[in-house]
Amino acid sequence: MVKLITGTLIQSYNICKRQTWLMAHQIIPDQDHPYIEMGRLIDEESYDRDKKKINFENVVLDLVRSDEGDIIVGEVKKSSRAEESARMQLAFYLYKLKESGVNARGVLLFPEERKRIMVELTPELENELEQIFKDIERVIFQATPPPFKKIGYCKNCGYKEFCWS
Ligand code: SF4
């Protein structure tokens, strides 16, 4: 089951389970949505000095640096408003790396806010992730998406047109 799960699904799970279902069912969000576009630009332009993309199974790591022998995996984010979902997404990448025998630490980078947050894969965080994997499975194997419920994130969501029409 973990193979079906991506960092994007983990991130969406912490924001909106309807979004998780829509993504898992290959319903493509509005790619012209300004928030998505801005995220793409930040992803392309920020931290160029350190830029290195690594494809890892179904995971794309935005940035990998070795600092005094440690492996540090970085994720660039537009804003820290969804900090918890970003933290769990990065924890998922650390989990996948550990499964392959690579112990890494993570850092969340918020270039617009000049902020960074370290993420360590503790046993508690691993347990939390494993519970999330099970619940994502429960959500995405439902025949229909969870019902629409307006939340603050909706106005920035690529599925807005889909959900609000
Ligand atoms: S528009 Fe709102 S309810 Fe619909 S997927 Fe996005 S966040 Fe969820």
UniProtKB/TrEMBL annotation:
<keyword id="KW-0269">Exonuclease</keyword>
<protein>
    <recommendedName>
        <fullName>CRISPR-associated exonuclease Cas4</fullName>
        <ecNumber>3.1.12.1</ecNumber>
    </recommendedName>
</protein>
<keyword id="KW-0051">Antiviral defense</keyword>
<keyword id="KW-0464">Manganese</keyword>
<keyword id="KW-0408">Iron</keyword>
<dbReference type="GO" id="GO:0004527">
    <property type="term" value="F:exonuclease activity"/>
</dbReference>
<keyword id="KW-0479">Metal-binding</keyword>
<dbReference type="InterPro" id="IPR011604">
    <property type="entry name" value="PDDEXK-like_dom_sf"/>
</dbReference>
<dbReference type="GO" id="GO:0051607">
    <property type="term" value="P:defense response to virus"/>
</dbReference>
<keyword id="KW-0378">Hydrolase</keyword>
<dbReference type="Pfam" id="PF01930">
    <property type="entry name" value="Cas_Cas4"/>
</dbReference>
<comment type="function">
    <text>CRISPR (clustered regularly interspaced short palindromic repeat) is an adaptive immune system that provides protection against mobile genetic elements (viruses, transposable elements and conjugative plasmids). CRISPR clusters contain sequences complementary to antecedent mobile elements and target invading nucleic acids. CRISPR clusters are transcribed and processed into CRISPR RNA (crRNA).</text>
</comment>
<keyword id="KW-0411">Iron-sulfur</keyword>
<dbReference type="GO" id="GO:0051536">
    <property type="term" value="F:iron-sulfur cluster binding"/>
</dbReference>
<dbReference type="GO" id="GO:0046872">
    <property type="term" value="F:metal ion binding"/>
</dbReference>
<dbReference type="InterPro" id="IPR013343">
    <property type="entry name" value="CRISPR-assoc_prot_Cas4"/>
</dbReference>
<dbReference type="InterPro" id="IPR022765">
    <property type="entry name" value="Dna2/Cas4_DUF83"/>
</dbReference>
<comment type="similarity">
    <text>Belongs to the CRISPR-associated exonuclease Cas4 family.</text>
</comment>
<feature type="domain" description="DUF83">
    <location>
        <begin position="6"/>
        <end position="165"/>
    </location>
</feature>
<keyword id="KW-0540">Nuclease</keyword>
